[in-house]
Amino acid sequence: MNALVLEGGGGGFRDVISALHLGWEGAAVAHSRMGRQALELCRRLRPDVIVIDSHGSDSQWLGLVREAREVSTAAIIVVSREYNEGDLIEAVEAGADDYLQAPINRSVFVAKVRAALRRVQTLGPRENSPASCGDLTVDPDRHEARISGQRLHLTATEFDLLLHLARRNGLVAGKESLCSVIWGEDGQLYAANLRKYIQHLRRKLREVPGSQASIVTLPKVGYKLIEDDRSEPS
After folding, report:
1. At residue 144, does pLDDT exceed 80?
2. How far apart are CA 219 and CA 100, in angstroms?
3. In angstroms, rounded to a whole number, what is the distance separating the alpha carbons of residues 157 and 78?
4. Within a 10 A sphere around the Cβ of 220, how many other Cβ atoms?
5. DSSP 69-109
6. In the chain, what are the helix, strand and coil shares in percent, each to the nearest 5?
7. Separation CA 50–CA 5 (nearest Å)
8. Domain layout of the chain by residue ranges
9. Share of the chain above pLDDT 90, in %
10. Which of 227, 230, 206, 225 has the alpha carbon at shortest distance from 134?
11. Taking the domain 2-123, which CATH number applies?
12. How far, rounded to the nearest angstrom, does the alpha carbon of residue 185 sit from its chain's CA centroid?
């Protein structure tokens, strides 16, 4: 297992590095301060796990989460020395798989990383062929979603939701299943946010003239993505 640990400042990440070696004997752990080289390390090392320190780096850490998610399929864990609910939400929306407070419990940290790795495997490799529904194409390799060639501007969470729905293409995705796929074994903690993300996705799909992709709600069951030809009067 390969891991990359990126610090924002202040040091104190020895527990994280030790936990990674504890959970995966023989793990290769690279350690660096944030900076211009961080994204290049994500590309070059192709780590399985990226741990990002949100302390002492202003908003740099959040931009790095977004950039790392664009170029890497790794599980991304954000560690903060001060718990902040706003940072947690921003981290998850930017593409992080989990947000933990330091000092970490090593056993809990290992369990969280394993859960994040399972989530990445459940979503499938980004190199898979694009999924489509009507004129919508969701390309995991490029991390792009387009309708008739027009790119949709999605958060990382919205993209993962749309990709999962597009892969099922007309089949129902249960609410609990969606939460588990998108947020891992702690998915039910984010269940209240699922409806909000679906609403945002619906709005973005409808904003594209002539869009044929539509998200349908099945009350108390879940959601499905269907081809909805709106060229005909309703």
Report:
1. yes
2. 33
3. 15
4. 7
5. HHH--SEEEEEESS--HHHHHHHHHHT-SEEEESSPPHHHH
6. 45, 25, 30
7. 6
8. 2-123, 131-227
9. 14
10. 227
11. 3.40.50.2300
12. 14
